[in-house]
Design goal:
The chain has 19 helices and no strands. By secondary structure, the chain is mostly helical. Helix 4 (45-60) crosses helix 6 and helix 8 (175-197) runs parallel beside helix 10.
């Protein structure tokens, strides 16, 4: 029996360069959605097959880490509240599916932080190429739309957008998801180039020869995909440049863009603006009236702020598996993350995991997590994919000096 296990695990005893390729693969497969093979909704068989193999890879390269410890604590708590406290609603399929995401994330964390599969330059090159692919497929879809072909599955153009125009979604399942993915990728590109050069990237630099194509690609995608989420992502990204002396030069540019978009009455921009203004009131009804689509992501946060009852035991331990999905949206009870299902304790534990492994608290990444991803994780692949990108940003934020030394020594040898 021992020899059989050694034979099986031998297939997963990957060398370092192969581990790097595995990390690349996980980033890509978790962030994209090729609808002809994966479907637009529901569980992706490709992602499930990928995650099903990850426990074997983790076992063959097991090294105790922060992520493994925190994932274990979080999952044990989930089992406690879902099975012991709310056994009547327990669903093994949901709990096992969650475990697959957690193990896959823990493995990815180990690849980046323990195995150190990425150098700074390698990761920047990957992010640049990933952006090129996403924007390139989007442009190809838009060309097909212009010539009258609105459904062409080979390039992931599988359904016609109701909003018309050039609205498309690249290798994703909707424009808003593409917007979030591109927003996080461009943020990673800016931060990692900042670590590489030792100071923040300024507006002038993003249009120089080295970065021009990436920047123009992002701008085209964000303004042409016709998504209100894209405008919100651009607003968050613009905060990166609001620092030091460049703050003075940035303000007129952003004010000019704001009034230009308002003047031309861009529908998605108006929706984004209305949703942002309504959110400031902290009134879920206002957000719902301003933009029903945005309300689905913003309303849980507002419900958490306005309706969280710390005297209720179910607030702390939840109502059981999938309660958040079963609550009618008309009751306006859905809260952020999985508080409805596993309680505030569970949400605190997942935040500890994410801020320990993926997010720096005082960063735009944190803002993107709460505004873009919705402040939760859930069993949603692209959300975990974006957190994997954030994990890389956090790693280079804390290790870029030593990484540069290692790269120099490697080059000399």
């Amino acid at each position: 029996m021992k020899k059989i296990f050694q034979f099986i695990f031998g297939f997963f005893s990957l060398e370092n360069y192969t581990l790097r390729n595995l990390a690349f693969y996980l980033l890509v497969i978790m962030c994209i959605q090729y609808i002809p093979l994966e479907s637009r909704a529901g569980v992706s068989p490709i992602k499930v097959a990928t995650m099903a193999v990850m426990p074997l890879v983790l076992l063959t390269h097991f090294r105790l880490s922060k992520a493994i410890g925190l994932v274990t604590v979080y999952y044990l708590y989930i089992l406690f509240t879902a099975y012991i406290l709310h056994g009547e609603t327990f669903r093994s399929s949901t709990i096992i599916y969650m475990l697959m995401f957690l193990i896959t994330y823990a493995l990815f964390y180990n690849l980046v932080w323990v195995e150190k599969v990425f150098s700074l330059d390698v990761f920047i090159t990957f992010v640049r190429r990933f952006i090129y692919v996403l924007v390139g497929v989007l442009i190809l879809q838009q060309v097909f739309i212009l010539i009258g072909i609105r459904v062409f599955p080979l390039i992931n153009l599988t359904y016609e957008m109701r909003r018309g125009g050039l609205s498309a979604y690249s290798i994703s399942y909707e424009p808003s998801t593409l917007a979030r993915t591109l927003g996080v990728l461009y943020y990673a590109y800016l931060k990692c180039n900042e670590y590489k050069q030792g100071h923040a990237v300024n507006i002038q630099q993003i249009f120089n020869k080295e970065h021009r194509l990436v920047t123009l690609g992002i701008l085209w995608a964000m303004f042409s995909m016709q998504s209100g989420t894209a405008y919100i992502c651009m607003g968050v990204l613009s905060l990166y440049f609001m620092r030091g002396a460049y703050f003075v030069f940035s303000i007129p540019i952003f004010i000019g863009v704001y009034f230009a978009l308002s003047y031309f009455e861009v529908e998605q921009f108006e929706r984004a603006t209305n949703a942002a203004e309504a959110t400031m009131t902290l009134d879920a009804n206002e957000v719902r009236e301003a933009d029903g689509s945005a309300a689905a992501r913003i309303e849980p946060l507002l419900n958490t702020i306005n309706k969280l009852d710390i005297d209720d035991s179910e607030t702390w331990f939840g109502h059981g598996v999938d309660y958040g999905l079963n609550v009618s949206q008309y009751k306006k009870e859905v809260m952020i993350g999985s508080i409805n299902d596993y309680g505030l304790i569970g949400y605190i534990l997942i935040l500890i995991l994410l801020f320990s492994c993926a997010l720096d608290f005082f960063s735009l990444g944190t803002l993107m997590y709460f505004i873009g991803i919705g402040g939760g994780t859930g069993n949603i692949a692209y959300g975990w994919g974006l957190l994997m990108i954030m994990t890389c940003i956090k790693y280079f934020n804390h290790h870029h000096d030593s990484v540069e030394v290692e790269e120099e020594e490697g080059a000399i040898s």
